[in-house]
Each structure stands twice: as C-alpha cells, then as structure tokens.
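Inputs:
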Amino acid sequence: MDKIRNLQAGAREWVWYVIAFVILMIVPFSGSIFWTNLLTEILIMGLAAMSVNLLLGFGGSLPFGHAAFFASGAYATALLIKETNLPFVAVLIIAPVMAAVVGAILGIIITRLYEFYYAIVSAASCMVLWTLIRKVPIFGGDTGITGVEIPEILSSIDAMYIFTIIIVFIVLIFTKILLNSPFGWIQQAIRENPNRVTCTGSNVLRHRYIAFIISSFICGIAGMLFVLHTQSTFPSYAHWVKSGDFVMICILGGVNTFIGPMIGAAALIILQTYITSLTEHWLLFLGISICLLVIFMPSGIMGLAGHLPSKIQSLYRKIRS
Amino acid sequence: MSGDIWISLLIAGLSRAMIYFLLASGLTLIFGVLKVINFAHGAFYMLGIFICYSVVKLTGNFAVAFLIIPLVFGLVIGGLTETVLFRRVYKAEHVMQLLLSIGVTYIIADVVKIIWGVSPYSVGMPEIFRGFFSLGGITITKYNLFIIAISLVTALAMFAVLYKTKIGSIIRACTYNREMTMTAGVNVSRVFTIVFVVGTALAGLASVTAAPITTGMLGMDNEMIMIVFSVVIIGGAGSITGALLGATIIGVVEALAVPLLPEFAEVIMYVIVAIVLLFKPQGLFGKSEARV
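Outputs:
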C-alpha cells in the first residue's frame, strides 16, 4: 500500500517538483562550472536510471540491459549529427526513436521472459550491441566517436544545463502522468501478480512489450543528452556493466519511489567524483558499498528517508518518557 | 579448406567448449539449489587464472597449481562469499542478489588490479603437454585432449555424486522443494554452503584448466560471464546436462564461426541464444516453470 500512496500524493508532490525545478534553474547563476557540469551529468544519469526503474520498481522486471538503449540513443545522435545534414530538432526526435526501435526488436524476446532469464538475456543483448559497435567501422571502433558538433546555442555549459533540465522535467512529467494512468496501474499490477492481471482480461505480454519500448525511448533520450553534454560517445556505453550502474542507482535511491533514481544518481555521482579525487580504487569502494547497501539498506536513500521521521518521533518519545 | 582442417577446428572448439562447461556447471549448480544467479562467477574465473600464474611462478610446477587451486579456491573464496554475503540475501528480492554478485565482481576486479597490476599475464604450457598428435591430416594438441578428458571426468563425477550418493539426492531435493527438504530434517543452510563451495571450486578448476591457453587480463571476467550465461540459458538454468549441451553448441559454433566471420563470432553466438529462446523460453533442458 505504501507504494500506492506514494503515487497518490498528488498536488503537494507537484509543488515539490516546481520548487526543485526553480532551485535547479538557479544553479548556473551561482557561477560554479563544476557544479553545473556535475548536475547536468546527475540529471542525465538519473533520467536513464528512471527509465530502468519504470521496469524495475514499477514493473517488477530485472532490466540489466538498458545500456543498449543508452548507447543506441548516444550513437544515433553522434552519427546523425556527424554524417547527415538533418536539422538539430530532427536529430532530437530521431535519436530516441532509434533507441525505441532497438528496444522494440530486443523486446520481442526479452519481454517473454521472467526473472533471471530476463536479466541475463537483457544483459546479453547489451553485449551484442557492444560487439557490433566495436566491430562495425561506421561506429568508430574502440575509440568511439569524438568531436560531435552541437549548435551554437547549446555550446555553453549553462545553456546545455538548462536544456537538460527542461528535457528531463518534460520526461519526468510525462512519466508521472503515465504511471498514474490505467497503463501505469496495470504496469504495477503486473509487478505484483502477472497471472491475476491476465485474469482481468489485460494482455500482459503486450503490456510488458509497450512498457519496454517506452522505457527504451526514455533511456535513448538520456543517451542523446549525454552525447550533447560530452560531445563524444564510446563503446563502453553499451557494456552490461553500464546497465549494472543504472540498476545500482535505482536501488541506491530507492526502487519503489518515483524520484528515487534521481536521488540515487546524485548520491552515486557526487560520491564517485569525491572518491576518485582521493584514490584510484573507486571500483573496490563501489563494490564494498554495493554489498553494504544490499545487506543493510535495501530500501535505498528514499526508503531510509521515509523511515526517518517515525524513527525520530520514537526517539523523541523515549527521551520525554 | 579441406575437411581435415575443419575436424581439427572442431576439436579445438570442443576443448574450448569444455572450459565453458566447467564454468557453466558451477553456475548452473548454484542456480539450481540456491536460486541465485552469480554474476561474480566470471570474476572467480579471472581471479583463478591470476592465482594460477602466481602459484606456477612460485613453485615452478603446474601440477601443484592444478591440484591445489580449485580446492583452496572453493573453500576460501566460495566459503567466504557465501557465508559473509550471499547468505543474507536469499530472502531478498532477486535484484538484490544480482546486485550483490555484481558488487563482488567489482571488488575482485579491483583486488586483481591491486595485486597483479594492469599488464596481462600468461602461464606457460607445461612440458608434458607440449606438442600434438596427428592422425592423417588431423592435428590435435595434447593439451586440448587433456582439457576434454578432465571435463568429461568432471561431468561424470558430478552425475555420479548427484544421482548415486546421499548428498546428491539431498542436493536434488533442495532444487525441487526447499521447504519440504527442510521439513525432512536437512540442514539446508549447510547444503547451500556446500553447493556454493563446490560451484566456486568448479570455477577454480576451469581457471587452472584454461590458464595455459589463456592470457589473463583485466576485463576478461565481464566477457566470460556473458558467454557462460549464454551457455546456461541455452541449456536451461539448473540443468547439468543442459550446461554440457549448451557449452558444446556455443564452443563449436564459436570455433567454426571464427574462420568464416572472424569479426562477428560473438554475435553469432548470441543469435543462437535468441533462436533457442524464441522456441524454448526455458532453454533446452530447463523446467517449464520459468517464472520462479
């Protein structure tokens, strides 16, 4: 029931989004290039993780292959800008659609599967793309594609940041509306019990398939934004380890919440920036953190934050008595 | 190319397949009993190869490494991972178990980097196994024969233990119904530890078997785990017979694809996985209840 109440928070929650939007819009005026850059990256990774969470937290699947769609969006953007003369707006539309097309093809097999098969096959499909990207000459091989030119208007760090915020918030609002629609309710019902959903007359397979395509589309947008931000793209974007990162971000933030992935992305990326400036053994640190997270904090930061008020209350009562 | 060369290739592919089998059998055994898919299995394999390199360098004797590493590896690495980490998440959601095993992968990858550095290592081929047999135009290296023999012995031993001994029937009982086995008075928790240790020891065995023909380097774990997953998926998770068949298919196809389409051998492998799954979503020997 907690999960349902989370979604029904309604108007009060929208106010928080408006406040978050305004605060985020102010950041560039603080003049810190470092934070503007970092926040752009956080928003993009958060968006990608959110697309994963659409299937993981709200759909009950184990999507370990979203790096494939992230890379599809990224490579489509890079190639469309470098190899064609399409207007920029057209690129913005075609690149995520390409990711959705990849999602539609891979989804045919993946959405038929459940549990570990789903996880493994989605991870394996990442590796197909990874191999193709490295071996087919047009994708630039192991060195990837660098020097992707973006329009004048987006060339400054602040402009790119504002552009990212606007796109991310549009997608967030769309996702929020989607999850509160009948489609979203069925999606969550499938998480709880696919067989019962079949009994109510919904086509579970088709529903999972459509959700998969929507999710890959959103992940494609994240990939596209990331290329516009860094102006380069590499084969490692398609590696299954990248998908693992997305899932990790979701769990860190809290899978059963809508905004969890954003919080998780912020925590992970800030931590990564800090730790890598101290030591080169980030991976060891990350591995140990994952183990601790899974064992001691499975509901993530949002879960912890949810429990905090009640914990403080009980502590307060103890002190008074 | 003439037929003889194809047969030689086939045998080389078969020996590669047997290494996949050794890895996949451990993974599928663990999955069957614990219902946990262990992403760290590839990392175990990589760690084993590096340890093998160091042991051979220290003792100068491949036989010592071959006999000791799987045993110690299973007991230490497998035992530690199961009792310290995995034991705590059996009741958690599956995504937690997967994430935990990814965490272990990261830790092992970085530990390998700290101890052995970033340069690739290789274990030299031991004296006895140098050279090859030739029958007419068909050439088989001695070591490839050795790999095939070792793996077949391992497979037979696994079947013998699983189907002819008491612990084997307990393990099989755990695969079918954990709660009922517990009710029968079996210490399921201990069975889990034993299975995890054996599975990890099999990864160690795969490492030492593969070491003389493989270059140990960082990143090999991530690629190997995907191949092994494909093997398990094709064969059907939890089935040793499936792992044997799946490994043979993947290994042979890979060996034959390399001379035909050198760039896309891996892609062909995944295409086979896709075809198998389209027709049999549970894999060739998987049980029909794919919704665990």
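Remarks. The longest strand of chain A covers residues 145-146. DSSP finds 14 helices and two strands in chain A.
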